[in-house]
Each structure stands twice: as structure tokens, then as C-alpha cells.
Amino acid sequence: MKRNRIKYKLVRACIFDLDDIISFEKNVLNDSSEYSSKRNLQKYIKSSSSKFLLIKFEKQICAYGLIAIRHFKNKPSARILKIAVKKGFRRIGLASELICELEKYALKNSMTGIFAEVRESNMASLNLFQKLGYKITKTLYGYYSSINGSYDLENGIKLYKILYGGRALGQ
After folding, report:
1. CB atoms within 10 A of CB 89
2. Which three-class secondary structure state does DSSP give residue 8?
3. What distances in angstroms separate CA 55 from CA 1, 42, 52, 83, 135, one per listed residue?
């Protein structure tokens, strides 16, 4: 599917999207441990310190992204919490567009850098973040539950990108 052939809308999530977001997660995410509770989704949608973006095609969610501005060890930081793209809409630039928009939100909130975490096995996501200028900062041992239903834990990779002068690097 070519990017220029589909007409999609980038919108901020609202409470009316809640059931569609829950359905999207169940259809797109690999593991039930990655699903957000309805309460958490509501919190992020309503929060002034987060931005929850949806990409819709023919009124259905085909991708989403979520960033939160938080205070960690008394320092403000931006963290991409979620990026997901539905099969059939991958590899056409939607995730890159979402990340770019989330970076703009971080800059608007005076953040100088942004964090993200990905599963060690999620090479597509890891490669995308690196292509967009994110650097691996460390391995997060046993960070994710197993996708295959076993009790094994999977490592995560923590990434960071420095944001400069009103523009994110790599834009």
C-alpha cells in the first residue's frame, strides 16, 4: 500500500475514541500485557502532560502514538510510551510521522531529549528509532513479559534522542 494513495487523518485521541483504541490494541499488539486499561487510556487522553495521537483511515484507527512528559528523579523528561501500526499500514511512514509529531510535542514542552523503549526482538521498531536518530543507551534485562505465553521475560532496549533548537535531530 503506497503512502500517497491513502488519505488518512492524524488526530488527537478523545474520550469518544476509547472503545476503538481498546479494540485496536487487542488486534494489533502482540501480548495482552501490552494492553492499557481503560482507566489508563482515559488518563492519558485527558492529561495535559501527555499527547495521544491517532492516525485514522476511513474512520478506523490504523496507527497510534503516545508520549508523556514526566518527572523522573526530579528531572522533567519526555517518553514515548506507545507506537503501534496495524498490519497492512506498515512500512508506509506512519510510525515515522507519529514519532515526529510526538517529538514536536516534547519540544513544545521544553524537553531537550526523548526516551523510548522497545523489545529486543522487535527489530523493525529498533531500526526505525535508530534511523530517526535515537541511540541505544542500555539493555533493560527482563523488562517485558514473553509474547509466547511462557513465564520467560524478554529484554528491552532503552533509546534516547537529543532534541535541539526547536527541531528534533533527523528531521
Report:
1. 20
2. strand
3. 15, 18, 10, 11, 26
Pairing of strands 60-72, 75-85: antiparallel
CB atoms within 10 A of CB 7: 7
**Cα gap 82→66, rounded to integer Å:** 5
- By CB atoms closer than 10 A (0-12, 13-18, 19+), residue 69 is buried
* DSSP code at position 22: H
Instruction: Provide the H-helix boundaries in 29-153.
Output: 38-46, 94-108, 123-131
Residue 95 backbone dihedrals phi, psi, to 5 degrees: -65, -40
φ, ψ at 93 (rounded to 5°): 95, 5
Residue 33: Cβ-neighbour burial (10 angstroms; 0-12, 13-18, 19+):
exposed
113/135 Cα distance (integer angstroms): 11
Indicate the residue type of 67.
I
pLDDT tens sequence across 71-115: 777 778 899 999 999 999 999 999 999 999 999 999 999 898 999
pTM comes to 0.85
